[in-house]
Amino acid sequence: MARQRQFTVLSRVLHWTMAVLVVAMLLIGVGMVASLGNYHLLVSIHKPLGILILILVAIRLVNRLLNPAPPLPDHMPAWQRLAAKGSHVALYLLMFALPLVGWAMLSAADYPIVLYGSLHLPAILPHDAMLYAGLRKTHTVLAFLLFATFIAHLGAALLHALIHRDGVFDSMAPWKARTTDAVAERVRN
Amino acid sequence: MLRLSAIGVVILAVIGCFAYVGGWLTPGRLTPARFVDKFEQVFGLHPGFRRNHAKGVCIAGYFDGNGRAVRLSRADIFNAVHVPVIGRFSLAGGDPYAADGPGAVRGMGLSFSLPDGEEWRTAMVDLPVFTVRTAQGFYEQLAASQPDPATGQPDPARLKAFLAAHPETARAMGIIKSQPFSSGFANATFNSLDAFRFVNAAGMPTPVRWSMVPVQPFQPEPAAGAQSQDKNYLFDAVITAIERGPLQWHLIVTVGQPSDPTNDATIPWPANRERIDAGTLTINHVGGEAPGNCRDINFDPLVLPSGIARSDDPLLSPRSAVYSRSFTRRAGEQKQPSAVRVPDTGGGS
Which CATH class, in words, describes the domain spanning B2-331? Predict the structure, then answer.
């Protein structure tokens, strides 16, 4: 049986959907806190989008446990394997933590957590201004960590796609990867 | 090498894009943080207090809807409901120790807890119109009122230049000065000033403004100089009044016509517009600012239930943004006691 080269279709659909959503979310996040006229519109998108990402990352974690990642190339050095593994764990943790901290901080501030129209979520923490202030700072710090991890992930993905061309990028490519032989041949060259 | 450079360019472009959107590349851009900074420069930094409407007292009671505004808004508050309300009386300005006086604009912030868990917050003042149309105008007005370090007073030349550049403010000041203020909080009319949209069950929008009109009879403010010398006379009077018995206001909804501006809070709507009495607010508790009460609530005017929506009024989103930034800053600061003290009668909220 041939070695699995690519993530499953479901894994790749989840990855690229979330990639778009998370990058949009980071942009909306930095944009809204610096915005006056568009603040309300952006916040109104930020909250339901955060909850959507929370739901998707939960689905994705289950999927990842059921459908493990394809193996990394044999020749990849140990430190790179560790960096890959570590950054993926960090991305998952942050994608869970950011919406949860956001939800918690709005609860502690006693803001209603409105998703759309009359649809809203319950508070998950008691009203406490100091607690809000701490969580609000945490939300910002985690967002910058997520941005930094995303940049590292993007850089590594581009290195694999354009420089190493070792099939790592192809394993998550939105299109169907070339055959194993073709990849192996390119690696040999 | 070309490919490696391409990767570098992509990474830098992404970071640059984020930095631009976040305002780090445009230090002159007016942001919520810079707005709040200006309040701190003008009024001094008072940790733990609101950056505007810093001086205040907590109130609580209930609202009884009467169903008369249901044809305009599907919000539950307009049914025949009885809902708890918490709120705050305040003086405009960022000094929590300011003396009460005839020149001070009074505010009423309210939070209605709707039956299904939704919430409606509104922050109103006792002016008939607002003095500026945009956030930029407000910022410039604030900057013009900043005391000159040399004299400790605002520079009259800067105020004059501001008014010359903002005829809408001069016009609004004329309207404000043409009507007497009331003698206290209890008999003041508090106005939303900004326009909103009511949306009914059929999805039809209607432009509205609203007011809390007191049941307590109007009395004009005494002539300047005739006020009590007490620094808290306005607050003390309303505290005493509430402890004697509940105070009431009618929620009056003014229904706008298509020709009425919804994007300019400096312009009054014609006096003959339909006014709907949508329910009665009863305030029967008053208490000093304390942890977990009105002190720790942001009366963000865009916390709205389904059935009330923002209009194209350019002040609304900036208000939401700046209130939020002010709230975030003060939430994490050590709190000082309010200058307004409420005698402990066991009934405070």
Answer: mainly beta
